[in-house]
Amino acid sequence: MGVMPPEVMSMRDISEVGGAVPSVLAEGRYITFGPFQVDQHRQEVSRGGTKLKLQGKVYQILLALLEKPGEVVTREELRMRLWPAETHVNYDANVNTTVNKLRQALGDSSEKPIYIETIPRKGYCLLMQPEFSDKPMAPALAASAVEMTAETLEKPRSLWPSRSDLWLALGVLGLILAGMLIGAGITRLWLGHFAQSADFFF
To answer: Which H helix or E strand runs over 54?
Structure first.
């Protein structure tokens, strides 16, 4: 049987054929960030208990980002990690494609990133601080994390006032301005009447 290309091989397949195996972070078997959990022993990623299908190189990029949360992982670092020096590929295009696949798997966006931010002309940065544990996330906590992430995605929209709120605010502002104008008119009338009274006595 022929050897599958690295892009479609699982991490177990890569180790069996002697390919590059991603590093394993020593802090714990399980890595949690947002609603996602990485099982380093099984080399699997799950969201709310549901396994994600990550290709070998996509998984390696995720690990590279998890190793340096909040820091820039340069494109050169990713190139050296994913492709040996003698490999002849279009590195830039392949890095872009692989990162985009990871974003799609995480449900992330380059325009409004939640997990992976693009640092122009440098590389990428993991925006969340991962947590490490020797025990897997409980199913209830995993489901709760998924719900919290959904709420986070909706919050920016809810921050904008509704149309009815805008009309109410404009109405209140109009009443305040009308009150100020009426008050100014009454004050002018009163001052004018006072001036006439003063002329009468003098």
So the answer is: none
User: Per the structure block, which two tokens stand in for 97?
Assistant: 């494609």
Q: What is the pLDDT of residues 38-87, one digit of tens each?
A: 999 988 999 988 999 888 999 999 999 999 999 999 999 998 888 877 76
Question: What is the number of other CB atoms lying within 10 angstroms of the CB of residue 10?
Answer: 16
Amino acid sitting at position 111: E
Is the distance from CB of 28 to CB of 134 less than 8 angstroms?
Answer: yes
Q: Is 59 exposed, middle or buried (0-12, 13-18, 19+ CB in 10 A)?
A: buried
Query: Scanning the structure block, which residue is given the tokens 């380059």?
Result: 110
Cα 123 to chain centroid, rounded: 16
Q: Is 34 helix (H, G, I), strand (E, B) or coil?
A: coil
Spans of the chain below 50 pLDDT? 1-22, 150, 153-160
List the one residue out of 194, 79, 71 whose CA is nearest residue 125: 71
Question: For residues 170 and 120, what is the distance between their CA atoms, to the nearest angstrom?
Answer: 42
Q: What is the pLDDT of residue 165?
A: 61
